[in-house]
Amino acid sequence: YLDTRKPKNFPPGPRWYPLIGCAWELYKLRKSTGSLSKTTGALAAKYGPVTGVRIGTDRIVFAYGFKAIHEFTTKDEFNGRPHGIFYRTRTWGKRRGVLLTDSEFWQDQRKFVLRQLREFGFGKKTMSNMIEEEGSVLIENIKKKIDNTGGACVIRMDDIFGIHVLNTLWTMMTGNKCSSDDKEIRRLQVILTDLLSKVHMDGALFSHYPILRHLCPDYSGYNMYLGIHKRMWRFFALEIQKIKETYNPYDLRGFMDVYLKMLNSPKKKESFTEGQLLAICMDLFIAGSETTTKTLGFGFLYLLLYPEVQRKAQEEIDRVIGRDRLPTLNDRPNLQYVECVVLESLRMFGAKAFIIPHRAAKDAYLNGYLIPKDTILLGSLQSALYDKEAGWENPEVFDPERYIKDGNIHVPDHFIPFGFGKHRCMGETLARANVFLIVACLLQNFTFTALPNEPPSPDFVDGVTPGPKPFRALVTLR
Ligand code: HEM
């Protein structure tokens, strides 16, 4: 894999220098643009919708725009996941979990996880109850703050959703509910935030130059990466142990119990192991927590920037539900405008993020270029979710009404914040339900206003899961 010659008919891109490949040019672009997604945009402007680069030992292709992303996420040849040192280190040197695995192993595990999640978390009643409870705790917490400060309070909005989103995942996985100040759940949140803000979709220095993890483990990012993962392994190993101690096959409380039952079944396939259970727990928390939390963060940021959208959503909630009871998932069909606020929030979060890296499982073609086996493929979702050619008009405007056609919600094919194809997100139902109920509950009870001297910025903090910059709002009781 040290062969650094450019393959014939590989996508165009910056010049490949011996050893470093295009690292220097990419570093400069990243510094000047400030984020990976803007870097991808700059590359596309120069080289076209499919750009090929080399960084150290990695060959990477950036797909830009809905057409190119749609092509690579739907072709089976590109359904592999990268398997370099960066990806293996997270699961103790082996390929485990569902987020970064492929082939038959991934198919079996994905099928099992999806089926079980539907039963324990995605089933409408349990899911609605779980999120409603979190919504009412959030409302009570804000009301207490308002009571203490006399009618209105100032809240850091990017910071208030994390624990509640984690708690819904926690309940689904373990069957237990935690209070929002539970020490364990707070500890998990700190680990996840740490990991997802320090790691980037295109890897780290040690992933492009694996030798550096031995030569300079601190500088190459290896020690930090391994350290955070070790904390996560310890955390989940302990939780699985606790679940095992109270396990009763006749009373399955959540996903972990169901997986343990499978482990005791004579029918289980080889890929089902306790290590795999730990990896799935990590994956679902990594994939499900910060994505949902940051979607809510961006949603409220845009509700501050677009007060008329907030007012319209509140009017709809008042008309359909009133103030005597909290919204539930059953209200979704009748809260059309709120549902469209959710779609726009997802689009705005997605537009800062990337598809999880894919890998060419064999030599294949993308947009007419040869993509050799084991090339990593990255897709900037902004390029698809802001793509005017695909059909987005005024993409930078937060406009829930763009989804309403002839009085009905119409979600266009180019709405792909959850990806596309066989690796499409496994938590879409839960994520959309979470965002919907929390937005509806909060707007029913409060009005959120930008502080006069602190207009929130739609700019973002880069990372695997990009988030809004810290911002505060004035919250008043309705
Ligand atoms: C707003 C919230 C979310 C967004 C925007 C989101 C987005 C995505 C995207 C873009 C992908 C990559 C698809 C691909 O690689 O082609 C993905 C995959 C995945 N997501 Fe989500 N996600 C969200 C919430 C969740 C939740 C709540 C869970 C779990 C409970 C979850 C679990 C997963 C898993 C396991 C995968 C990997 C699927 C596979 O490779 O087969 N996600 N998600």
UniProtKB/TrEMBL annotation:
The protein's superkingdom reads Eukaryota
Gene3D superfamilies in the record: Cytochrome P450 (1.10.630.10)
Q: What does the record give as cofactor? A: heme
Molecular function terms in GO for this entry?
Answer: heme binding; iron ion binding; oxidoreductase activity, acting on paired donors, with incorporation or reduction of molecular oxygen, reduced flavin or flavoprotein as one donor, and incorporation of one atom of oxygen; steroid hydroxylase activity
Name the InterPro entries on file. Answer: Cyt_P450, Cyt_P450_CS, Cyt_P450_E_grp-I, Cyt_P450_sf, Cytochrome_P450_fam2
Instruction: Please state the protein's primary subcellular location.
Output: endoplasmic reticulum
Write the record's keywords in alphabetical order, separated by commas: Endoplasmic reticulum, Heme, Iron, Membrane, Metal-binding, Microsome, Monooxygenase, Oxidoreductase, Signal
The record describes its membrane topology as: Peripheral membrane protein
Entry GO terms, CC: endoplasmic reticulum membrane
An example of a Pfam family matching this protein is p450
Compartments annotated for it: namely: Endoplasmic reticulum membrane; Microsome membrane
Q: Name one GO biological process term.
A: organic acid metabolic process
Per UniProt, where does heme bind? 425
What biological function has been recorded for the protein in this entry?
A: May be involved in the metabolism of insect hormones and in the breakdown of synthetic insecticides.
The similarity comment for this entry is: Belongs to the cytochrome P450 family.
What this protein is called in its record is Cytochrome P450 303a1
The organism named in the record is Pyrocoelia pectoralis
